[in-house]
Design goal:
Helices cover 61% and strands 9% of the residues. The chain has 1295 residues and is α/β, with parallel strands linked by helices. A hairpin with a 2-residue loop joins strand 21 and strand 22 (1267-1272). The chain has a six-stranded mixed β-sheet, with helices on both faces. Helix 6 (155-204) packs antiparallel against helix 31.
């Protein structure tokens, strides 16, 4: 991806995935090579010699890539939207004038047809040709049977028929593979086009529409629903092909059996309502399953993003039960679906022989003199076998149509949801102001109340504007209104120039730190270094293991909140925009860093001094240096003016400043005294001289290890242990019952054919048919009974297979969930969430739906192959001479294919998570992407990751075609030799045996192909089992509960002791905490301070055993915490974290997920947190639905809810991890006073950026580079003139 930095836009070009352009060999090969896929030999050969890598695969044709497909489809979709919009206007007029309500909802079908119609027509023509050839084989077989009955028999004529049969089946093979390849590739292009449209829609979706779609639901639309669309596109030709094949088969059958065939057709027609009924049930079940799947993905995504909270609060079992509860409901749906499949298998197995029974019965009944000959019987059976496949497909086609209707409806609803209106913000206006509001009101939700009311303000270009106010007053919404993110109700919004936006909760990409700052632009090294210096990032780069090339984890999980915010600021600064919207970026950083940022970047003398800057802030010390102050109150601008104007005229503003000054006694009217970089350097040198500041070995340097951005792809053959793990979960009982049912049904199938062959052979030898006619009803009844028993065994096989698969699904899902929740927190820091989500969606889908089906069909085909070979060799022993070399070639082809196919499958598995991860990342950062105007770049990036996923799929598709052509060619040889042996035998072999051999020979082509393919599919799909099981072997955290349990009421005093404690994040890295020793008193209030990377958060991690120590002890009230279970420890500690994480669900469930507290207790803590009036005003009160991530609450309100959550736990130890960084000073003071009052009898450890919050602590612990510098009362530390004294002086705090 290339781009250049500029104010207005960026230009992009596609780069080859491997760095050098590769051509697709398929476009440059001869016709024969295309037909036989010989051009793919290179990949197959390479895969056999070594595990395939991405560079070994062929690239896509340009016409098949997302870069070509998506824009074409989007053009057609826009036409459909325009028609629908016109229809909407007409509908409105009709409703008003004629009271009619017709409305044309946009449909995906027409745009898809317009985009892909020529490909679809080509595929249909190939299907017609393949179907026509399928009906030629029975006619040639009929001719051979009749030739064997003629006297004398002509050997040459028989050989001619054998050659003709060979060429027909060979042509059918080549045409069918052309059809399958083109059909699947077209289906993939359809899915790709819709995925591209969903991604683009997600970037333009209005926030009012976004309320109806969680991240999990949108991800499910892009994965599950588009996959359903792909499956429908694969089977769409069956909608016309099935009736076509039925009609042709009936015509040929009429020629053989006359009007009696109508009895069989009538029975077929009776089956159609059954199939329709089954399809309707499947549709309902699919809809239910998708609903539960949505819920599970949504909850799981939130759990993984909030995993730190779950671990710190020991909530994993509660949320595990929630996931398992949803899963159980999904399992009930899968059970019903499985039983429905068993019923379908019964009808599908019974229909062919019932049709034969009805037809032959009618044949005898219509004319008593009718006699079945070998030609009539075996030609009819072959035709009915051809008919069997479309009949087998018919329910799945009807089911696919039903399921696709559900998916199409969901997709159309999403794609037609309301977008942001770009006309809400006017960019073409007169005047020299950068931003203007004229009587403007806004709301977030479609039918919600106005959040911002009657805003009127003009912000001059180049000015610095501060927006202040209490929590929930509308400060962040003010910036969202400038960006056009809110729905405008009235008035005018004006904005000029390019925009850079820094959100309150910094959005960080899963990329290197440098790429996060460049944000798609070219590197301008001098300006880049200037930005790094202005954003105080240079010291951090020295600490990072790879400097600015260090990979940042998903959502910035492996850097601190302050570092995330500074990276976000650096991204904005590097963009060189005209307008900067800064949503409280100073709250998450230390005081001295905040002053540095204001002086060097934001303030009147900073890097952005010539730009227009709108700064939302709770730091009122910066107000004297702003050009304009806007005070927000309940969504209105209550006051506005310069600092001096507001101080002199506005009593409320003075009160606001005084409230701030009560805690912080510095003079607001004096200039901000930011320590110079020289002074900071002097302090750094002093600390280094003491041997305490070692940039390369700091705790930060250890903690911020590499993220595992690229998934490792397994290599080598499938281990039998993987399949054994599945079979163990499947249950051996169900496995043996399945084998017994399948052996029985195949034995009965062979018995049916042998019974029929013997009966026909008797017919040929009988001269007087009187006796034969008397026994025919008996013979026919036996034939029917064998078929009926076979059908029952098929049904039983499907039933026990379903029971076993449900057992495996439940066990493997439960194990995976348990393994993931037991992983240490560091795993989630270094691995993208999308990787874990893909295990629960794509890989478990294989376990739920496919793997047992592949095992069952493989077993069935294996028994079919054994039965076929036994039948043919018993009738023609010479055939064994052909079977041995053909079997050898089968084995060789299979070995070559599996080696490559298995690795391509693994590459496919590794290429899918980046698509989901990038999409999820985009959904989280959509406001930032829109603000910077980088939608097109992210759309192109989506094309890149989708392209990579399709490349693996494309190579897998070609490898399947390569295999099929070769296997079917060997099968065609088997047919040819069996026909030649028959022809050369002359009159030695009876006509019934001729019919039996050739019909089995024709059948073996498909069976052998499907047998090898199923074996390959088992091995390639076992990759999903392997991926699910791999979490069982990963390092886990210590047990949640151990045999040693702390006594009830522990800890009762709250005395914490660190004794010579050492810890590191990895064994190959230095110490993150180095020989830390200190002890708190009971109920003591201890402040913990230190610069970024000092080890403050590491200390908390060790206390909660998120990080295990390598030496020393932590003792709480006399118990070494390493000797008890993690939940016994964490469940008895309390923490208010820096990031206020909430989960979707009710407000009540967020406060008390374990359901331990009464409503009265909840209202009490809400009152203590000053949230009672707010919650009481909500329509559903405690049952108010919190949206995903708590997005329908302000950050300050989320933080207060986290305080309420902590108040409910009532433990003796509380840790405040920079808990008030995101709230205004008044709320901060309120929170601090509440904590002092409610936790007065608790030991409180406070980690703070704002030093004033620790000034009232009884003692202060000063950390640097993982060591303790100082530990004493604040007064004593100030008198010593040490590190703490210097930090206080820098912060401008005077005591």
């Amino acid at each position: 991806m290339a781009a250049s930095r500029g104010k207005r836009g960026v230009s992009y070009e596609r780069l080859s995935p491997t760095g050098t352009e590769k051509y697709n060999t398929e476009e440059n090969v001869f016709f024969f090579s295309k037909l036989t896929y010989s051009w793919f030999n290179r990949v197959i050969s390479t895969g056999y010699k070594k595990p395939l890598e991405r560079e070994d695969l062929f690239e896509l044709n340009e016409s098949d890539s997302p870069y070509s497909v998506c824009p074409k489809f989007e053009k057609q979709w826009r036409k459909e939207i325009q028609k629908s919009t016109t229809g909407l206007m007409a509908s409105y007029i009709q409703r008003m004038l004629l009271k009619k309500t017709s409305f044309h909802k946009p449909s995906l079908i027409l745009p898809l047809w317009q985009t892909f119609k020529y490909l679809l027509i080509k595929v249909a023509l190939l299907k017609v040709a393949a179907d026509v050839l399928a009906f030629m084989s029975p006619q040639i077989m009929k001719a051979m049977i009749m030739a064997s009955e003629s006297q004398p028999s002509s050997c040459w004529r028989g050989c001619g028929y054998a050659v003709a049969l060979f060429f027909v089946v060979l042509s059918q093979t080549l045409l069918r593979q052309l059809y399958l390849r083109n059909n699947m590739l077209t289906a993939v292009k359809i899915k790709t086009a819709v995925v591209g449209l969903i991604y683009k829609k997600a970037l333009t979706l209005a926030n009012s529409s976004r309320q109806n779609y969680t991240t999990g639901q949108i991800v499910n639309l892009m994965s599950a629903d588009t996959q359903q669309l792909l499956e429908m596109a694969v089977t769409v030709n069956q909608l016309w092909s099935v009736p076509f094949q039925i009609i042709v088969a009936v015509v040929f059958l009429w020629k053989e059996l006359g009007p009696s065939v109508l009895a069989g057709v009538a029975l077929l027609l009776l089956v159609i309502p059954v199939n329709v009924h089954i399809a309707a049930k499947v549709r309902r079940l699919k809809k239910s399953q998708m609903k539960y799947s949505d819920q599970q993905v949504k909850l799981l995504t939130e759990i993984l993003h909030g995993i730190k909270i779950l671990k710190l609060y020991a909530w994993e079992p509660a949320y595990q039960r929630k996931i398992l509860s949803i899963r159980e409901r999904e399992m009930d749906v899968l059970k019903s679906s499985g039983y429905l499949t068993a019923y379908s298998m019964l009808t599908l197995t019974c229909i062919p022989f019932m049709v034969l029974l009805a037809t032959f019965g009618a044949f005898f009944h219509l004319d008593k003199e009718n006699v079945l000959t070998a030609a009539k019987v075996f030609t009819s059976i072959s035709l009915f076998n051809i008919l069997r496949h479309p009949l087998f497909d018919l329910p799945s086609v009807i089911s696919a149509v039903a399921q696709t209707r559900v998916s199409l409806s969901r997709l159309e609803d999403f794609l037609f949801a309301e977008d942001l209106n770009p006309e809400d913000v006017s960019t073409n206006y007169s005047g020299n102001h950068a931003v203007g509001f004229i009587g403007a009101s806004f709301r977030w939700e479609k039918n919600g109340l106005p959040i911002l009311k009657n805003l009127s303000v003009k912000i001059p270009e180049g000015s610095l504007v501060a927006v202040v106010g209490q929590v929930g007053s509308g400060k962040s919404s003010f910036l969202s209104a400038v960006l056009g993110e809110m729905e405008k109700l009235e008035g005018t919004v004006q904005r000029r120039g390019s925009v850079a936006y820094v959100s309150q909760q910094a959005w960080i990409q899963n990329d290197s730190l440098q790429e996060n700052i460049l944000f798609g632009a070219d590197l301008n090294r001098p300006y880049y270094n200037l930005v790094l210096e202005s954003c105080a990032l240079l010291p951090d780069l020295e600490q990072l293991p790879d400097g600015d090339q260090t990979e940042i984890g998903e959502r910035g999980v492996n850097i601190s909140g302050g570092q995330k915010q500074r990276v976000s600021l650096a991204r904005a600064a590097y963009s060189d925009a005209d307008l900067y919207l800064l949503d409280d970026p100073l709250s998450a950083v230390d005081v001295h860093v905040g002053k540095h940022l204001f002086e060097k970047l934001i303030g009147p003398s900073g890097l952005l001094k010539s730009k227009t800057r709108i700064l939302v802030t709770h730091n009122l010390t910066v107000l004297p240096h702003t050009d304009l102050i806007i005070v927000m109150e309940e969504g209105r601008i209550s006051q506005m003016g310069t600092y001096q104007e507001l101080i002199s005229k506005r009593a409320n503003f003075v009160e606001l400043v005084q409230n701030f000054g009560a805690e912080r006694t510095s003079e607001e009217t004096t200039p901000v005294e930011v320590s110079s970089s020289k002074e900071e350097g002097q302090l750094g040198r002093k600390l280094q001289q003491k041997g305490l500041l070692k940039h390369k070995d700091s705790s930060f340097g250890q903690r911020k290890a590499h993220t595992n951005n690229k998934e490792k792809v397994a290599a080598g053959g499938m281990k039998m242990s993987v399949v054994l793990k599945y079979l163990q979960a499947f249950s051996w009982r169900w496995m043996w019952l399945t084998i017994a049912a399948y052996v029985g049904q195949n034995a009965l199938g062979i018995g049916q054919n042998l019974w029929l062959s013997t009966w026909i052979a008797e017919t040929a030898q009988v001269s007087d048919f009187t006796e034969w006619k008397q026994s025919r009803n008996y013979k026919l009844s036996i034939y029917g009974l064998l078929g009926f028993i076979q059908g029952l065994l098929v049904c039983c096989g499907a039933y026990v297979l379903t029971r076993g698969s449900l057992s495996a699904s439940r066990a493997m899902h439960g194990q995976l969930l348990d393994n993931v929740l037991h992983l240490p927190l560091q795993h989630f820091v270094t691995n993208p969430v999308g990787r874990i989500i893909s295990r629960f969606t794509k890989d478990l889908s294989v376990v739920d739906v496919r793997f047992h089906f592949y095992l069952g069909t493989w077993l069935n085909f294996t028994l079919d192959v054994i039965g076929t070979i036994l039948v043919i060799t018993s009738a023609s022993p010479l055939f064994i001479v052909v079977i041995i070399p053909l079997g050898y070639f089968y084995f060789i082809i299979q070995r070559y294919y599996i080696a490559s196919s298995r690795q391509i499958r693994r590459l496919m598995g590794a290429s899918q998570p980046p698509v989901i991860s990038h999409f999820s990342e985009t959904l989280v950062g959509r406001s930032t992407i829109r603000a910077f105007g980088h939608q097109e770049r992210f759309i192109r990036k989506n094309y890149d990751v989708v392209y990579e996923s399709i490349v693996s799929f494309y190579n897998s598709l070609i490898s399947n075609s390569w295999l099929s052509v070769r296997l079917e060619f060997l099968g065609n040889l088997m047919v040819f030799f069996s026909a030649m042996f028959v022809a050369l035998s002359g009159n030695i072999v009876s006509s019934s045996t001729v019919g039996l051999l050739i019909s089995y020979g024709l059948n073996v082509i498909q069976i052998l192909n499907l047998w090898v393919r199923r074996a390959c599919e088992i091995e390639t799909n076992a990759v999903s089992i392997e991926r699910v099981c791999e979490y069982a072997t990963m390092d886990k955290e210590e047990p949640w509960i151990m045999s040693k349990r702390p006594p009830m009421g522990w800890p009762d005093r709250g005395i914490i002791e660190f004794a010579n404690y050492k810890a590191h994040y990895r064994k190959d890295l230095g110490l993150a905490l180095n020989d830390v020793s200190f002890q708190t008193q009971s109920k003591e209030k201890v402040g913990i301070v230190g610069r970024t990377g000092a080890g403050k958060s590491t200390l908390t991690n060790c206390l909660f055993r998120v990080l295990e120590g390598c030496e020393g002890k932590i003792i709480i009230d006399g118990i070494d915490i390493s000797t008890i279970g993690l939940h016994d420890l964490r469940g008895n500690l309390n923490i208010i974290p820096q990031d206020p994480i909430l989960f979707s669900g009710t407000l009540q469930s967020n406060l008390d997920p374990l359901g331990k507290h009464s409503d009265l207790e909840l209202w009490e803590v809400l009152e203590l947190c000053d949230l009672k009036d707010f919650v009481w005003s909500l329509p559903k009160k405690l049952l108010h639905e919190i949206s995903e991530g708590g997005e329908n609450l302000s950050v300050g309100q989320r933080q207060l809810l986290c305080l309420a959550r902590a108040l409910l736990r009532k433990t003796k130890i509380l840790v405040l991890d920079e808990a008030t960084a995101s709230v205004d000073m008044e709320t901060d003071n309120f929170v601090q006073s509440t904590i002092k009052r409610e936790f007065h009898n608790c030991t409180v450890l406070t980690i703070a950026h704002r030093l004033h919050t620790v000034m009232d602590s009884e003692r202060v612990l000063v950390l640097d580079a993982g060591r303790i510098l100082e530990y004493d009362t604040p007064q004593n530390l100030l008198q010593r003139k040490g590190a703490f004294s210097e930090m206080v002086a820098e912060a401008g705090i005077r005591r």
